[in-house]
Amino acid sequence: MRFVLAGQPNSGKSSIFNSIAGYRSATANFPKSSISFTTTKALIAGREVEVVDLPGIYSLTSSDAVAGPAERYLLDEKYDLIINVVDASRLGRSLELTFQLLEFNRPMIVALNMMDEARRRGSEIDHQELSRQLGVPVVTTTSRLGMGLKQLFREGLRHAVFAVPAVSPTYDREVEDAIGRVVTLIDSRDSVPGVPARLVATKLLESDPHLSLRAYRLAPDLEAGVAEVGSLLESTHGWSADQVVSGSRHALAHAVEERVVTHQRPDVGWRDRVDLLLLNQWTGGPLMVAILAGFFWAVFGVGRRVEAPLGEAFNWLQGSVADQFVPGSLAATVADGLVMGLGGGVAIVLPYLIPFLIGLAILEDTGYLPRLAYILDSFMHRIGLHGKSVLPLILGYGCSVPAIMSTRILESEKDRRITAALTSFIPCSARTVVIFGLVAAFMGPLWALAIYLLNIFVVVVLGTVMAKWMKGASPGLVLEIPELSLPDLKTLSAKTWLALKEFIVIAWPLLIASSIVLGVLEWAHAADSINALLSPITVWLLGLPVAVGMTLVFGVLRKELTLVMLVQALGTTEVNTVMTTQQLLTFTLFVVFYVPCIATIAVLAKQLGWRGAAMISGITVVVAMIVSVAGRIAYGLFS
Amino acid sequence: MMTLDAVGIHREARVIMIDGGQKIRSYLNTLGIHIGDWLTVVQRAPFRGPVLVEIHGTRVALGRGVASKIQVDMDGVVRQLSGTMEAVGAGK
Prior knowledge:
The structure holds two protein chains of two kinds. Chain A has helices at 13-21, 69-76, 91-102, 115-120, 127-134, 149-162, 173-187, 197-205, 209-218, 222-237, 241-260, 270-279, 284-323, 330-365, 368-383, 390-395, 400-405, 413-423, 429-443, 445-469, 489-523, 527-541, 548-555, 559-570, 581-593, 598-638; strands spanning 2-7, 38-44, 47-53, 81-87, 108-113, 123-125, 138-140, 261-263, 478-481. By secondary structure, chain A is α/β, with parallel strands linked by helices. In chain A, the strands form two sheets. Chain A has a six-stranded mixed sheet, sandwiched between helices. In chain A, strands 6-8 form a two-stranded antiparallel ribbon. In chain B, strand 3 and strand 4 form a beta hairpin. Strand 9 of chain A pairs antiparallel with strand 5 (58-62) of chain B, so a sheet runs across the interface.
């Protein structure tokens, strides 16, 4: 048996999924945030059921010829039950999707979720009446608190076993006539096999790009027939056919809402009051600066306190391991590399990485990111983008790979390409570790802040240039601002753990292996030739010690490596005793800007093509050289 | 008749027409914004930033470009939003 969870963004779908999946998937507060769907197996009343969590969609009508993963799954895959998760506090709008899902004529059940939220807003919902109106079972749930979920899945299983298909809704007469006529046209051609003809007919009248392409490819003569029916609808209503159909569904949804909901006085909660300040035209901007600055100080404060004792322990460990071996032997080198790699992860990377990931997860889960998009919209227009681009860019401070993938939330090709390119310039958590571990730790947090500001400046300049240079129109910002919410501790820790696991499973082993390889290369004096090869850049241009050449090469694999390799190459965690502050600054600037890591290049290639990825990587090296040389000269002048 | 970007804070307006192509129209439709719907402007961001509207209990941010394509009609009444906005008066 297979159940699919389908619903609009922010309907609490993922938290229902998490409750049975044991927190293996991450939630995020904006549309299409789940890039691919997650599945899990669960035992319901002794039966094994596969549950699929589809990305949130507002409607089945796709905006592109390429349908999103959720639409594609619903149209083409095999499943036994649709669990439609509905936000009870936004019933009218949510029902518009529900009516479209009913058109699949598959067994379906509605989870009337976020009942606590609806009650707070003063809505009392008669769920039995709703069930009568929709013709499918309705179970009330509050997934955030885990309420009603057991009943939901049990009721769902019963419904799936009996396999009662859902019945399509009835729209107003003209629309029904038009749909009926298109259905007759389709029936004689079987244009989209496996999908109910009525669903196809509705979507063709709505000019859905994806289904139109599919239907008209198999039955090219269908197009003229649909256009004829559409123009008839248009002439009686005065609006285009797509508006008539979606308007009719809209009217039906709100009619049902009115029947089942009774309104009472809502509570004004603290969230509304806070939100007023966050979005206010006078206080919104200053509060944004305060929040982001607070985030920065918190990460630095925690990281610094944890790093110091760990660093000492690490130095002691290194010393005592070295005593066990003959100095200068291969065994000693390998052991030293092993300790460096293991210890480097714990003592240097994790102290800053963990608070940073927690902070980013809090920003995401409270729903502050869409508010950032709102506040920064006019600023982003100056770069030639709009507010929505802020979401991938902020996620870029976590990891460039998912951030670049999330650029697909943007509607226009131009916005997607520019934002993906700019996102690769944003210092990800690995680069943050370098900034905090070198510059903030040895030069002070203000210097680290200056690097972030300089980075934003460079991104703005690059964005402006790219927007001027590339053609294409953008529709501008259209974004739902969900309610603020207190982050749930379970989801928060699950999310942080998910991101941290990525470091532990992939980066750390790589760190240890690279550390040993570097040790052996140095032992065999092979590192010298690579360092010498890079010395025109490292020594002549940037004024760095010759030994840092290798660290920059390893940095292409993972940016955290540069820091650990630097410690390895210089032979001490007290980097400031070997390098001057000017050198630390120059090195960090170069690391922040030059070539994103291999994983980022791969995902860039997927989004922009190999040429685009190669070009961006090339630009990053040039930018890195310019910025770090400028930094070196400026620091030399003013100190 | 006027466009949504010219509507003041706390004002209610009714959508009369959505200019622009089918793509932007259907996108607004999926977010619950249709012709004939009432919406309320909750906030207007400074520096020609977006307009925040409340419609059917949902908040949607619309960039000025999009807002200028939405033709609205106003009855001039300042109505209370779905109860969430009582504290708004304090800001003004």
